[in-house]
Design a protein that fits this description.
alpha/beta, ABC transporter transmembrane region fold, Rossmann fold, 2 domains, four-stranded antiparallel beta sheet, 62% helix, disordered N terminus, disordered C terminus, ATP hydrolysis activity, transport, transmembrane, ATP-binding
């Protein structure tokens, strides 16, 4: 084959190390860009009046402290501004005049102003540290309460990593803003204006000489501002990705080790870490241009002032003390400019963080109690699904279709079907984690959309398929739904579900720490604790979502024996893949694609030889198959 192009594409193994490194960098950046598109961040303005007003609402309870801090800031700024002038007076009226008394007087004045500046600054910082921390604590508490008001639909579409970024990262940015930047901004502006006024009063000629370098400062500032906005945004975005991935990796460490994914995870984290490093390097390069540039311009201004001022002093048109004072002012003149430049990124980050936080706070739960909702009285436990249909989104496909089901008080209802048949959706509707989109769901004749969610759920006992235990002791977890329960009641609930035996064998018994999400307990033990937790609440309706799916056969028998007794007098809804656990149910409801296709007792459904018969006989045959082991 003849190749007519003079330029050919080199094979992978023919590339130079530099070309391979470049290709790797481009691939990494492509992966990072994809992640950034999935979780884009607001760029933010340097100032947004709407957001500042909302932040001001959180500051209102502390306005007296803020006023005191501003007064202290004003005093400290005034004392700071007069310092160089005092030195100039000491030189002209004390040293040059040969008056020791005058020199001593201005020296004492200088010491007093220095001590006064230190005291007022220290007091201001203490006040603002308290106010900033308190405002952020208030906001974090409001966020936490608001997150608990949001429904499950929100958490299905919002990652935990992003929420942690809001609660920790964004709120931390606001703390930095409130604590340091608010009074810091006014202090920088006040100092800058004060220095300009002082220089003009002392020598307007030298002031104009110092200001001659300002065009250079404007050019440098505009160059830095236009680029640092994107650079610091990139670092914040990549840090958020790292935090999210760390949260996911640590939470799923058991799965990672089970599938030996460590090396792949290392490489992915290295990509994120390297991208964060590159973004930081770019931001650092900009800082390395701007801040040394400010220092250079400041030195240039000082040199011009010394040169022109010295010439004026030699011509007796200016005193030496005034020249020294102006030189000191020139050196201080660029300090607030540096601070304001550094604050710019803080302001921008604050506006972006505020936008995200307020956007989260403004989210209204898609399931709220009716304004006329009543408290559900003590129920007997009759549950009626009256032609119920449901879709998870308004324009989405329905997952339940015209469900008609009646459970009388004390009955045990078993829900059976393949994955995706709608079993879990039914109990989510019963728990009112979602509202029905068609028909009505009644408990003791009350439409659950017309009663308060709290009064409904207080009479439900729920054990979900995914068992979750909270950090604390075993007793704390069992008592989670009924804090006033005595130790004896906790123990009785544990004995009823067969958990007391293994709890007693723990080093500290009921006081043993379960670890994060029950990491110190086995899957079966966690399930037993969750059973005890649900039963201690003494519910009128008991909901078990594949609650025995994670336990071994021996433990399942213990649980089944306890449930047979504990379900007496309670309406129970049971989802189980092991059909052997529901043969004594009063009603077995077979679901398929959101519809009830069979309904009856175990014997009735077997006699029909329909879908339930097929499911049951397949499981029975699978259980009877011999198991072979290889030596």
């Amino acid at each position: 084959m003849t190749i007519t192009n003079e330029q050919t594409i080199p094979l992978a193994d023919e590339r130079t190390p530099a070309e391979m490194a470049q290709a790797e960098r481009e691939a990494r950046e492509a992966r990072i860009r994809q992640l950034l598109r999935e979780d884009d961040e607001l760029l933010g303005k340097a100032y947004d009046g709407r957001l500042v007003r909302r932040l001001g609402d959180y500051m209102t309870p502390y306005k007296i402290s803020l006023i005191v801090a501003v007064v202290l800031m004003t005093i400290s700024s005034l004392l700071s501004v007069v310092g160089p002038a005092i030195i100039g007076f000491a030189i002209d009226r004390g040293i040059r005049a040969g008056s020791f008394e005058v020199l001593r007087f201005w020296t004492i004045i200088f010491l007093v102003t220095t001590i006064g500046e230190w005291i007022t600054n220290r007091s201001r910082l203490r006040i603002m540290a308290f106010v900033g921390t308190k405002i952020v604590a208030d906001m974090r508490s409001e966020l936490f309460r608001h997150l608990h008001r949001l429904t499950l639909n929100f958490y299905s579409n919002y990652s935990v990593g992003r929420l942690m970024s809001r609660l920790i990262g964004d709120v931390g940015v606001l703390q930095d803003f409130v604590t340091w930047s608010i009074t810091g901004l006014f202090r920088s502006v006040f100092n800058l204006v004060g220095i300009v006024v002082a220089m003009l009063l002392l020598s307007w000629q030298l002031a104009l000489v110092a200001f001659a370098v300002m065009p250079l400062m404007v050019i440098l500032t505009n160059y830095w501002r236009d680029r640092v906005r994107q650079a610091y945004r990139a670092t914040r975005q990549r840090l958020a990705l790292i935090n999210g991935y760390l949260n996911e990796s640590i939470s799923g460490i058991r799965v990672t080790k089970s599938f030996t994914r460590e090396e792949l995870n290392f490489r992915h984290f290295d990509d994120l870490n390297q991208s964060f490093f590159d973004a930081n390097v770019q931001a650092t390069r900009l800082s390395a241009i701007f801040f040394p540039g400010v220092d250079f311009i400041g030195s240039l201004a000082t040199a011009l002032v010394v040169g022109v001022g010295g010439w004026l002093v030699l011509g007796d048109a200016l005193t030496a003390g005034t020249l020294v004072a102006v030189v000191l002012y020139v050196e201080r003149f660029f300090d607030p400019i540096r601070e304001l430049a550094q604050r710019y990124n803080t302001f921008q980050a604050t506006m972006a963080a505020s936008e995200r936080i307020f956007e989260l706070l403004d989210l209204e739960p898609d399931l709220v109690d009716d304004p006329d909702a009543v408290v559900l009285p003590r129920i007997a436990g009759e549950v009626v699904f009256d032609d119920v249909s449901f879709a998870y989104s308004r324009d989405g496909r329905s997952v339940l279709h015209n469900i008609n089901l009646t459970a009388r008080p004390g009955e045990r209802i078993a829900l059976v079907g393949e994955t995706g048949a709608g079993k879990s959706t039914i109990i989510r509707l019963l728990s009112r984690f979602y509202d029905v989109t068609g028909g009505a769901l009644l408990i003791d004749g009350h439409d659950i959309r017309r009663v308060t969610s709290d009064s409904l759920r207080q009479q439900l006992g729920i054990v979900l398929q995914d068992t979750f235990l909270f950090t604390g002791s075993v007793a704390d977890n069992i008592r989670y739904g009924r804090l006033e329960a005595s130790d004896e009641e906790v123990m009785a609930a544990s004995q009823a579900v067969g958990a007391h035996a293994f709890i007693s064998r723990l080093p500290d018994g009921y006081d043993a720490e379960v670890g994060e999400n029950g990491s110190n307990l086995s899957v079966g033990q966690r399930q037993l604790v969750s059973f005890a937790r649900a039963l201690l609440a003494n519910p009128r309706i008991l909901i078990l979502d594949e609650a025995t799916s994670s336990v071994d056969t021996a433990t399942e028998r213990i649980i089944q024996q306890a449930l047979d007794t504990l379900m007496q007098g309670r309406t129970s809804f049971v989802i189980a893949h092991r059909l052997s656990t529901i043969i004594n149910a009063d009603q077995i409801v077979v679901l398929d694609h959101g519809r009830i296709i069979e309904q009856g007792t175990h014997q009735e459904l077997l006699a029909r030889k329909g879908r339930y018969f097929n499911l049951y006989t397949m499981q029975w045959a699978a259980q009877r198959q011999p198991t072979f082991s290889a030596n």
